[in-house]
Amino acid sequence: MALSGARFRTLSWAAQFLAYKRPSWKCTSCKTLRPTSITLPRRFATAAPTKKPYYVTTPIFYVNAAPHVGHLYTMIIADILKRWRTLCGDTDAQLLTGTDEHGMKIQQAALAAGMDTQAFCDMNCKTFEALAKVANLDHNYFIRTTEPAHRESVQYFWEMLSHRGYIYTDKHEGWYSVSDETFYPQSQVHNSLDPTTGRKRMVSAETGKEVEWSSETNYHFRLSAFQDRLLELYKTGFITPSNYATDVVKSVASGLQDLSISRPAERLSWGIPVPGDETQTIYVWLDALVNYLTKAGYPFPPGQEGNLGWPADVHVVGKDIVRFHCVYWPAFLMALDLPVPRNVLVHGHWTINHEKMSKSTGNVVNPFFSLDRFGVDTMRFFLAYQGGLAGDADYDNAYIIRDYKKLLQSGIGNLVLRAIGSSKGKLPSYIASGHSGELPAANEHDSQFEQLLKETPVKVAERMDSLNSRAALQDIMALVEQGNKYIHVSEPWKNADKAPRILYNVAESLRIAGILLQPFMPTKSKELLDVLRVDNSRRTFSAAALGSDAEYGEGMKKTVLFPPLIVEQ
Ligand code: MSP
């Protein structure tokens, strides 16, 4: 017999799993009953409980259109977080990215392209996979929501919600936006004239996207039951940066309506059918959000929920999809007593001339072109350095060229050339003296710069812990900037006695910056550390401290790390 709700919730998750009277639906791909149908991944077999792997995700991308620079940005932010954790010693940190392939939007786009829908998804999914590769994403998984494993995971998730009484059928009336894949109430839509056709239409007040009236019977989720628990969750710093939390709290506190979570299959056939009711298709956002669980091994074998990373440490999302990740998603998880993600990191949008870069406006920048034109690491650097978290950021090729020249060429590149050039082959001996504490006495400039060398890695780690990769990168670049100022005022080329200390400190700034830059510019930072002859075993975060490496520098040669951009020649 199933346990009563209250009693059930007092059991541990593992006990719940065992005690649960599980619905006996057939697993479509293997045709056996769950739970015996679950084939345990190999790492489950020897389940000695260990620390949960760090787990970060990107949103999964709609395959109705080609990727643009906004998509690249969200990928890069997540990749930096993952690489940072790896740098800090979490060698099993996990990054998930992928494609969102169901829903009305995709169904209509495939129709418009005159293609079979699956073939259309297969084709467009490849472009996102290619982007992840070209942008040097260190992802562990690329999920597609059309995968059989995901379908099973979503259907199982649905069954659990249903079994716990959180799903009911009702008539639903409202305005549906295909572009946003969401319903809006009457209060959130208004009349508008389409500027290109002069046609009158209804649009969402929030996104400006066209909506159509829909009246249908479908399944609903009892979202309204979660208002208090959601408001409690927001007090824990669930949403970063906090400006987005303010809006979410305001909206949830003003009341939550239950959520329509299916569409009649006659309208939407391209999706996952509701288990036991083929006349209904699961709402694309419920389907999409579960991707984060699918790749974490859901449904979880008892006692092994965290083995593949759940709960996610960070979901990286753009500001337009906050409601789905910060309201619906935690509510769905709470309904099943599953742990909620630790953090949702929201970022602003890239704009062009202060208008959101988006396919519907037609002002998109093809990320493949910019990666090719400026170089992968230059683009990673630019997006991370200028990209908005709390706010938006404006995109312009001129800004990329400006930052390349000022921060990379004249910043890092110049400091490398000056350090190696001024030391005339003696840098390894200065480094050895620096390490053994045999340098000339420090003056005020030296002490100030040494203080910065000590503080920077600590500050950068704090910034990354609070998920502010932009501020972390700015701190690293401030160290480089100060390094250039320090060598300029200290003039080691005029002062042979003082040169060992000055050049040692400058070499340390480059070594420390090189280590810390690895998550941001994996290739360029490797080149920098190679030029400095830093051993591969001493490139982790723990080595990014003043005086922690005595053995680099031997055989360094002047190298141009950031040559003139081809676009300028
Ligand atoms: N499929 C949903 C996400 C489901 S996650 C369970 C989706 N896809 S999307 O392709 O439209 O957008 C993917 C991500 O790109 C979102 O985080 C979105 O905010 C981001 N961006 C889209 N345009 C953007 C900019 N102009 N600038 C920055 N990011 C932008 O939403």
From TrEMBL:
The keyword Ligase applies. InterPro entries: Anticodon_Met (IPR041872), Met-tRNA_synth (IPR014758), Met-tRNA_synth_2 (IPR023457), Methionyl/Leucyl_tRNA_Synth (IPR015413), MetRS_core (IPR033911), Rossmann-like_a/b/a_fold (IPR014729), tRNAsynth_Ia_anticodon-bd (IPR009080). Its EC number is 6.1.1.10. Keywords: Aminoacyl-tRNA synthetase, ATP-binding, Ligase, Nucleotide-binding, Protein biosynthesis. One of its GO terms (biological process) is methionyl-tRNA aminoacylation. It comes from the Eukaryota. It is an enzyme of class 6 (ligase). Residues 54-419 form the Methionyl/Leucyl tRNA synthetase domain. GO terms for cellular component: mitochondrion. GO terms for molecular function: ATP binding; methionine-tRNA ligase activity. CDD domains: Anticodon_Ia_Met (cd07957), MetRS_core (cd00814). Pfam families: Anticodon_3, tRNA-synt_1g. It catalyses: tRNA(Met) + L-methionine + ATP = L-methionyl-tRNA(Met) + AMP + diphosphate. Residues 444-542 form the Methionyl-tRNA synthetase anticodon-binding domain. The keyword Ligase applies. Belongs to the class-I aminoacyl-tRNA synthetase family. This is Probable methionine--tRNA ligase, mitochondrial. It comes from Aspergillus avenaceus.
